[in-house]
Automatic annotation (TrEMBL):
One of its GO terms (cellular component) is plasma membrane. This is TRAP transporter large permease protein. It comes from the Bacteria. The lineage of its organism: Bacteria, Pseudomonadati, Pseudomonadota, Alphaproteobacteria, Hyphomicrobiales. Belongs to the TRAP transporter large permease family.
């Protein structure tokens, strides 16, 4: 077993010296394959990479990224926050709760967490600070709610997990709805009671009466995007289109919304969106392909089987094993980016999960809930640095401290869905 340990050390060493994650995964995997199979490694490596990326369902990934980037280039984020304020301003702490609601909906629009943090945070943070909200609530609500985009469909991490595990992306999308909504409600309830117990963190402003006409006009600024998302997801759930086909329709629809309805993107803007989407998609796909090389080596030397046998042999209850896995994933998520964590850990942990009798669909949801915690915790938490970029009035130390109670809420919800898998599987089973 010395060779797998050496391969892991190579991987960690390359990451530590700042090598690109795809290069670290590919080099470590090829090294392992060479030690196990000699020169045949140079045949296995390209075969593994191509085999990972040669998937029709994986076409949905760059297309949903393109859809999200086009919509992020429109005033949809600003309009979403305004609509949430108009509908929720009567609540104590309504601006913060509106931020959670706007981020949840924007997650369904973009599928990328940092896009939601940038779009909503650039508006919500200055607005909350101007109205006397505490800096902790302003920062924490934006950063934590932005992570909802990872779970609420169409979700890029769920697409990646589906490509790696073979689980239907459509089923994963359905499975992400209940946990995503539950987490958004949990964050909102926490904010409500927090400001109720400590009113100084969200001073009550002069009550503004909004008529039903105001509420409907607020919806008027976002109905295009909401209709597009509803049609895209509706065609997937009803079986009219595959996720890849629906993503293509969504990308075209988002392009028309950005260029024809809002007219916020011209020829130059379109080229920028296309270039940005290509870079993001290319980076994700390259990581996925190289991680497959690393994963195939681990499978070749039967590391997943060894880990499964070791944990099963401890005679620990399945619930205890699951909690240990969750703690390990949370820790890894603080050090490794979301894409790499999915493609590396899934081949290792999925055999153990199925041996314990759990559904791979449920594990995909739980894995992404772990990643929601990962993107708001340092040192790799991208949402933290994204908010710092769009809200320079906040210090990074303030942002990091602000997320601690929100992470606790996320962790409690994670444990609930770990211990009660039926909650995650209820809607997919119903749709079947």
């Amino acid at each position: 077993m010395i060779e797998p340990i050496l391969v892991v050390v190579i991987l960690l060493a390359m990451i530590a010296i700042g090598a690109p994650i795809f290069l670290a995964l590919g080099a470590a995997g090829l090294t392992g394959l060479y030690m196990a199979r000699g020169s045949m490694a140079f045949f296995f490596g390209p075969t593994s990479l191509f085999g990972q990326l040669n998937s029709f369902e994986l076409l949905a990934l760059p297309l949903f990224v393109l859809m999200g980037n086009f919509l992020a280039a429109t005033p949809v984020g600003k309009n979403l926050f305004h609509a949430a304020v108009v509908w929720l301003q009567w609540l104590r702490g309504g601006l913060a709760i509106a931020t959670v609601g706007a981020s949840a909906v924007f997650g369904a629009v973009s599928g990328v967490s940092i896009a939601g943090v940038a779009a909503v945070g650039s508006i919500a943070v200055p607005e909350m600070l101007a109205r006397g909200y505490s800096r902790s609530i302003a920062a924490g609500s934006v950063v934590s709610a932005g992570a909802l985009a990872m779970l609420i469909p169409p979700s890029v991490p769920l697409i990646i997990y589906g490509a790696v595990s073979g689980v239907s992306v459509a089923d994963l999308f359905i499975g992400g709805i209940v946990p995503g909504v539950a987490l958004a409600l949990a964050l909102s309830v926490y904010l409500y009671f927090r400001v109720l117990l400590n009113p100084s963190e969200a001073p009550r402003q002069a009550h503004v009466e909004y008529s039903w006409g105001d509420r409907l006009r607020a919806i008027g600024g976002i109905w295009h995007a909401l209709l597009l998302v509803a049609v895209v997801l509706g065609t997937i759930y009803t079986g009219v289109a595959t996720p890849s086909e629906a993503a293509a329709f969504g990308a075209v629809g988002a392009f028309l919304i950005a260029t024809v309805i809002f007219r916020s993107v011209g020829l130059r803007g379109t080229m920028e969106v296309l270039g940005s989407s290509a870079r993001i998609s290319g980076a994700i796909l390259l990581i996925m392909g190289c991680a497959r090389i690393f994963g195939d080596y681990l499978n070749l030397v039967r590391v997943p089987d060894a880990i499964t046998g070791l944990l099963i042999g401890t005679d620990l209850p399945p619930e205890v094993i699951l909690v240990l896995i969750m703690l390990a994933l949370v820790g890894l998520g603080m050090l490794v980016d979301a894409v790499s964590l999915i493609v590396v850990t899934t081949p290792i942990l999925l055999p153990l999960i199925t041996t314990l009798g759990y559904d791979p669909l449920w594990f995909g949801i739980i894995l992404v809930m772990n990643l929601e915690i990962a993107v708001v915790t340092p040192p790799v938490g991208l949402n933290l640095y994204t908010l710092k970029a769009v809200a320079p009035m906040l210090k990074i130390e303030e942002i990091v401290r602000s997320v601690v109670p929100f992470v606790m809420v996320q962790f409690v919800m994670l444990i609930i869905f770990v211990l009660f898998p039926a909650i995650s599987l209820w809607l997919p089973n119903l749709m079947r």
